[in-house]
Design goal:
single chain, alpha/beta, eight-stranded mixed beta barrel, 32 helices, 62% helix, disordered N terminus
């Protein structure tokens, strides 16, 4: 339990989250770079001749440029995205300085750009770049918080950005000098100009006693994939190791064959590319195949289709960054295990003489099946690849299913927590800002807000209708209630939908959708029955703040014929707290045009009675807390009796919500209440069911 809690807390740390988010943000550039690399290196000789000659090689130059600035600059991209993510979680207003400080620190550590023989932003430098990025961001956060204690750094009356720049001056100077000095000392100490690429340096030191045998192959595969799991380009970081251990293999076999002898070397770089890294690191083709077979989530199936093309040509970044595999503890086992199993199965097949040794170097972009045949000169090589592909897919499938189940549970829990936070905010009067970077579940909220946008555009939200019954047993009306059955989280609470729509700028679109849908449903009801019916639609207070709201609403209503059906707009008390001329004018305008007004949650708010002298209502709905406490609380009964008596004098209807028992209904009847709504009479149902049941 302690280990699980430790891992859970570690997963929520700024460092881990910033790496995860940074890797996710870089996906568009990975996709762009992957396809540029694919079109540049497509392993078909006539195509290569064509692309080299077409337009004088300009297309090839464009592809080279695109690859260089995307996949070829992976260290640069990750430095920016990880540091920005770190900054947004630490001090959102200063995220820019986190990114620039990390980039400057990295270049300072490497000794600049022009002075280096190597391109310090290439994939093989990712390990170094990520280490410097995380360390510089952590130091910057500490330095800035310490600098704030010095009041002399602040200039009263100066612009905000000027003060921010002065505040960050000293931390930036100290951190830049620190990393520049560390790089100089490290290079002088070792006497090597490229020691700052310490990922490659450390790997060569660690693997210096290994040889290109089975144990060396297994250790190389294991450590390269451990690096990949933490977002570090393992094969590039260990490229020097791979060259030392495995590059001579094919040449040795070719020399032996030329001398009339049998090949002796199983392990070579081509062996790794063709029989172990099927589809790239982690045997990504197996992952994609398993996704296409077992994934139930639409975004994972879509990932399988998008990444499948590049994975066929052994470009795996889209798959492992997008699923994600990186930092996903569920996927650690299959990601490491699958290529290790392939080393063993391929070694066994060649040792037993079932498959010839690799005797030809093959371009790493040659697709599976073709590469197996080309490397071994035998169909058996292709068969071995197919067998490995089947084994790897079977290894991945249960982990993909479990990972999806875990993703679903986590997302549902975050949505549930958001709903609870909203309820607590209503009680305290301080609702959380769900899309704020400071909110703990902000990324789940942003996911939900983005899903809401797509669902609105596709018209996937619905309205359900809860019947309102008269004391004499007849139908009084119905309340339209928003429903969103999210494909992952299930039904989302309407207040949460409204809050997300408001914060993400979709409130007007949501309000228009609800109104249009209600109008369409009322028109359907009118075609079936011409009896009188009042249909209530909830209107958010924020909607009234929109320009020409009532004019826009009336324009929508003018396109529908309701017959004897009456449209009623329900407003919460918050609307009536605003005594501005705009709110008053908007309400009066809709009343003049035949729309009735209902005040929701009446009786327990701040000054509910006072609003009666400033506004005209056709209806008030009793606060649910009054109805729930009616049986056991005499004061609740007295309040309800007073409201009913007042309603008779001021001539407005009273609707009792949350009527769930016969006893509640009977008490309300005795007090003179004549309209009821609640589970005792029926739950909210889709419009088709409402029409069939009640009309």
């Amino acid at each position: 339990m302690k280990i699980r809690n430790y891992y859970r807390n570690l997963g929520k740390s700024t460092a881990i989250l910033s790496v995860k988010q940074g890797l996710t943000l870089v996906i568009p550039f990975l996709i762009l770079g992957s396809f540029a690399l694919l079109f540049k290196s497509f392993p078909y000789p006539p195509y290569q001749e064509f692309i080299t000659a077409f337009l004088g090689g300009r297309i090839l130059n464009i592809l080279d440029a695109v690859y260089t600035i995307t996949l070829g600059s992976l260290a640069l991209l990750l430095t920016v995205t990880i540091s920005l993510s770190f900054g947004r979680m630490s001090e959102s207003n200063e995220a820019f300085y986190y990114a620039v400080t990390a980039l400057v620190s990295y270049m300072a550590f490497c000794g600049g750009i022009m002075e280096n023989e190597e391109y310090i932003f290439g994939p093989e430098w990712v390990f170094t770049a990520m280490c410097i990025t995380m360390l510089s961001c952590a130091l910057f956060r500490l330095s800035v918080r310490a600098a704030r204690k010095f009041e002399a750094m602040h200039t009263v009356g100066a612009e905000y950005l000027f003060n921010l720049s002065i505040l960050n001056l000293l931390p930036i100077v100290i951190i830049t000098l620190l990393f520049a000095g560390a790089g100089v000392l490290l290079r002088e100490w070792t006497g090597a100009s490229n020691i700052t690429n310490f990922g490659s340096f450390l790997s060569m030191k660690a693997f210096r006693h290994l040889s290109g045998n089975l144990s060396g192959a297994l250790l190389y595969v294991f450590f390269s994939h451990v690096l990949w799991f933490f977002g570090i380009h393992g094969t590039n970081t260990l490229d020097a190791v791979a060259k030392r251990l495995f590059e001579p293999g094919v040449s040795v076999n070719q020399t032996l064959i030329a001398a009339g002898k049998m090949p002796t070397e199983i392990y070579s770089k081509s062996f790794m590319d063709i029989f172990v890294f099927i589809g790239g690191c982690g045997a990504a083709l197996c992952l994609i195949t398993a996704l296409l077979i077992a994934a139930k989530k639409s975004h994972n199936r879509k990932l399988g289709k998008v990444a499948g093309i590049s994975v066929l040509f052994n470009i795996s970044e889209i798959a492992i960054f997008g699923f994600p595999v990186i930092f996903n503890p569920v996927m650690f086992v299959p990601f490491i295990l699958t290529p290790l199993v392939f080393v063993l199965t391929s070694t066994f097949a060649m040792t037993m003489g079932l498959v010839p040794y690799v005797t030809r170097s093959v371009e790493w972009t040659v697709p599976v099946i073709f590469s197996g045949y080309e490397a071994t000169g035998s169909v058996a090589g292709s068969v071995l690849q197919i067998v490995n592909l089947l084994i790897g897919t079977l290894i991945y499938i249960p982990f993909i299913r479990y990972s999806e189940e875990k993703q679903t549970r986590n997302f549902k829990e975050e949505v549930r927590q958001m709903t609870e936070d909203m309820d607590q905010g209503d009680e305290s009067g301080r609702r959380p800002i769900l899309l704020s970077d400071d909110y703990i579940h902000s990324y789940a909220a942003k996911t939900l807000a983005y899903d809401l946008k797509n669902e609105l555009e596709r018209g996937c939200l619905t309205l359900h209708y809860q019947v309102q019954m008269s004391a004499d047993g007849g139908i009084y009306g119905a309340e339209a209630l928003l429903r969103w059955n999210h494909p992952v989280a299930g039904y989302i609470a309407p207040p949460l939908i409204i809050q997300l729509a408001s914060e993400s700028g979709q409130l007007q679109a949501l309000g228009n959708f609800i109104l249009e849908k209600a109008c369409t449903d009322i028109q359907k009801m009118n075609r079936v029955s011409d009896q009188s019916l009042r249909v209530s639609v909830n209107i958010s207070p924020s909607q009234l703040e929109q320009k020409d709201w009532s004019r826009h609403v009336l324009d929508i209503l003018s396109h529908y014929d309701f017959g004897k059906k009456q449209m009623v707009f329900e407003f919460t008390e918050r609307v009536f707290l605003d005594h501005s001329e705009k709110v008053t004018g908007e309400l009066e305008n809709i009343r003049r045009n035949g729309i009735e007004i209902s005040m929701d949650d009446f009786g327990m708010g701040h000054g509910s009675m006072v609003y009666l002298q400033d506004y005209f209502f056709e209806e008030v709905k009793l606060d649910g807390r009054l109805v729930r406490q009616l049986v056991d609380n005499e004061r609740s009964r007295n309040i309800v009796s007073g409201i009913v008596d007042m309603a008779q004098t001021l001539k407005f209807h009273v609707v009792a919500e949350f009527v769930e028992t016969e006893e509640q209904r009977d008490l309300l009847k005795e007090m003179g209440c004549k309209v009821f709504q609640g589970y005792y009479y029926g739950r909210p149902v889709p419009p088709e069911e409402f029409i069939k049941t009640y009309l």
